[in-house]
Amino acid sequence: MLEFIIVPFTNVLLFIYNLLGQNFGLAIIVFTILVRLATYPLTAQQNKSMRAQQQMQSSKKWQDIQKKYKDDREKLAQEQMKLFQELGINPLGSCLPTLIQFPIIIALYWSITRALASTPIELMNFARGISLPNVADLIPLNSSFLWMDLGQPERLFIPGVPWGIPVLAILVMVTSYLQTKMMSPTSGGNDQAAAMSRSMTIYMPLLMGYISYIYSAGLALYFVTGNIVSMLQYGLMGRFNPDSQASSK
Questions:
Q1: Among 200, 191, 241, residue whose Cα is nearest residue 53
Q2: CA dist 154 to 165, 168, 212, 213, Å?
Q3: Is the C or the N end of the chain the one with fewer CB within 10 Å?
Q4: Neighbouring-strand partners of residue 145
Q5: What is the average pLDDT value for the chain, to the nearest integer?
Q6: Which residues pair with 149 in a beta bridge?
């Protein structure tokens, strides 16, 4: 279903892998940075949409609407959509980059899985979709990066500790929380958008951490790198501390 994304992703990953001395971990990091740079216009639009929603939330007109229809949720939602239209706000504008990430995540997972094939049949199927001329010299790929096997769920084993510590899964949860907090429009209201924002801040990091815990370390490495790059982008756009921004308005 996503072959039109998976095959190009796999080729790009292998090209970067070969360029970086056959280091698949660095290839994933560089690939993630390139993806984030390519989607930067969407990120900038997302930031613009969130700023507009913050300004709307603090406007007297919206506060009057909330007071007027506080007991009629349906009418409140209708008036909110009208105000969105008046101000030129796309309510989905802050969600678009996140939605686009899902097919990228799925495609990257399958790209990593295919790239780290080990059995003869898997290697043969993997080589069929590769357009690089020297693919025979690249496979099987080197899946080792730091303490990790990028094709397996990541665990750090420390002498004396009876279980492996999922370092990347923890980092994914922490960075996902910080990123979601930065992305969420700050609002002191109790409207549906604010409630959804608070839920996303809690549940999205847990979901991303769980995915990182059970799937390959390569995917978790993509999540961590992507979160850090996104936070840097938001910082450059003046959203490193959205709470302080909201209080300054």
A1: 191
A2: 8, 7, 8, 7
A3: N
A4: 148
A5: 77
A6: 144
Helix (H, G, I), strand (E, B) or coil at 186: coil
In this structure, are residues 89 and 47 in contact, taking their beta carbons and an 8 Å threshold? Answer: no
Residues near 203 by Cβ (< 8 Å), separated by ≥ 6?
A: none
Please name which of 165, 150, 158 lies closest in space to residue 223, comparing C-alpha atoms: 150
Q: How far apart are CA 24 and CA 13, in angstroms?
A: 8
Residue type, 246: A
What is the pLDDT, as a whole number, of residue 247?
42
CA torsion, ordered 96, 98, 99, 103, to nearest 10 deg? 130
Tokens standing for residue 112:
């990593």
* Helix intervals (H) in 39-72: 40-57, 60-68
Residue 7 has which token pair?
A: 């095959």
- What predicted TM-score, i.e. pTM, was given to this entire model? 0.72
CB 73 within 8 A of CB 19: no
